[in-house]
Hints:
alpha+beta, Beta Polymerase, domain 2, 8-stranded mixed beta sheet, 6 helices, 10 strands, globular
Amino acid sequence: MERELKPLLEVAETLGNLRAPFYFSGGWAIDLHLGRVTREHHDVDTLVMRRDQLALHKALKQFSLKKIIPHPDGMPPNLGKIVEWPPGERLELPVHQINAYRAGESEPAFQVMLAESNETEWIFRRNTEIRMPISRMGFHPLWGLPYLAPEIVLLFKAKHLEARDRIDFENALPGLSMDARRWLRDAIENTHPDHEWLYAL
């Protein structure tokens, strides 16, 4: 598994320069929670608090950073516009994704999602009624790859329901604690009434 985790270890070493909390998110967060690689991953998603964004340029100085300006309807294939993100520019919603590129490469090495929060709570940007204490939003295992709580990852995945999202839900569900299931069920009911996952939760 160490060989498969090499891309994550490289990103973790880089984001360690941030001196602020970061988490792996997306499908990799599910696999880190399960302790095994369950499917092929085509990218590496990370999450950083929006309040810490201005430290990213200094921490990632060997990368070219670009922001994604979302398309108004927000649904694939309308993925938005990718433009340079100059140092010192503070990003506000709806911008929530930054791509980090190595020199000479056209595909991002990894993506950074910006998370909304107040002093003590993570706030779901799609429905600000949904929150979680920052102290519970992620896991920090001893091997140094912090990851976002699987119930938060699945809440984000509930919107698009691509094949990989369904795979991640099926893999993650048996390992969710009762509290995590309850939180996810309530969050999905609040955001996507009649969602197909509610029947399994």
